[in-house]
Amino acid sequence: MTPKVNYSIIIPMYNEEAVIQETYRRLKVVMSEASETYELIFINDGSRDRSAEIIKEYAAWDETVKLIDFSRNFGHQIAITAGMDYASGDAVIIIDADLQDPPELILQMIGKWKEGYEVVYAKRVKRSGETFFKKWSASLFYRVLRASTDIHIPVDTGDFRLMDRKVCDEMKKLPENNRFVRGLVSWVGFRQTAIEYERDERLAGETKYPLKRMIKLSLDGITSFSYKPLKLAGYLGVLLSGSGFLYLLYVVYLALFTDATLKGWPSVVGIMLIFNGFVLLMLGILGEYIGRIYDETKGRPLYIVRECHGLQKQEGPMPK
Ligand code: UDP
Ligand code: MG
After folding, report:
1. Statement: residue 318 has pLDDT above 70
2. Which stretches are transmembrane (predicted)?
3. Fewer CB atoms near the end CB (10 Å): N or C, the chain?
């Protein structure tokens, strides 16, 4: 067993060599102010640059630095999950490696935790240095998510948060593959509170969340917490066949009781395109769910670790 510490800081990194040294420095400054024991768990999510080497150098002379080195890129949400599996702290803090989440806020989080809150999440009141599209799409996503689920998932909140050991242990019991960690934290419950902050610009390097990954994360969020998109097919079906039937009655009336000649093909083609479009859309939505069911049935492990520095997997419930 690795000795227990007060705080475990989880830092996922994917090609972050340009920022990781500064992140390390800032975290050290902040955590030395807390004057309690801590560990910095860096997860190297298959970086192709020197991120892992840099951390290994630090680990050689700083025993608070630990490294989980993945065999390839498994994705941000999985990297966080691995960090939670290995963390031994009484409180676990997740923070991005790019300093968009200011480490200084950790002290405030710790303050709230000591007041008795079990989850302290950081809510962004402002995001600087991000494109209009990113801000707009993120805001849209959080609102769609809120509208489609019954669990309260706070809007405009990323994974930057503190969790009590109890929360972390419960999270470890959730084995799902397509993970949306911030939703799962809401799902497990406990006493939660927010602190507000302004999200800075990335210190260096570029975002590791291109549009494709943002869409994947959004779909993971919505499909893991809601069946509503599936029900949409039923509602639309009732609406469309209902109005189709009424229209049919009208056509029969025209044919039987008036002299109107019934001209058809533009309307037929239009209706066909629209209806086939709906059907394909619904098949696509079904596909999103079925693909995820398939992922779960395969029962593959969430991640594969090449090597660990200064860490052992913690006792207690493990993901599959
Ligand atoms: N990240 C990761 N694996 C990935 C993609 C991202 O570990 O496949 C890490 C990345 O190094 C960073 C955090 O996840 O520490 C958030 O990523 P990023 O800052 O690129 O996302 P953004 O802030 O632009 O949404
Ligand atoms: Mg970032």
Report:
1. no
2. 232-256, 268-290
3. N
Q: Which residues of 176-192 are buried (b: 16+ CB within 10 A; e: fewer)?
A: bbbbbbbbbbbbbeeeb
Give 24 Cα–ligand 2 centroid separation in angstroms.
16
Residue 187 neighbours by CB under 8 Å, 6+ apart: 151, 174, 225
- Domain extent at residue 268: 227-298
Task: Give the position, in ligand 1's atom list, of the atom nearest the Cα of 97.
Answer: 15
* Structural domains of the chain, count: 2
Q: Is the same domain home to 155 and 278?
A: no
| Residue 49 covered by a domain | yes
Q: Are residues 121 and 231 in the same domain?
A: no
Nearest residue (by CA) to ligand 1, atom 22, is 207
202 Cα: distance to centroid of ligand 2 (angstroms): 6
| Per-residue pLDDT tens over the stretch 157-177 | 889 999 999 999 999 999 888
ipTM: 0.94
- Ligand showing the shortest atom-to-Cα distance for residue 207: 1
Residue 67 and residue 309 in contact, taking contact as beta carbons nearer than 8 Å: yes
Whole-number Å distance, alpha carbon 96 to ligand 1 midpoint, is 7
The whole-model pTM stands at 0.83
Closest to 185 measured CA to CA, from 201, 203, 198, 170: 170
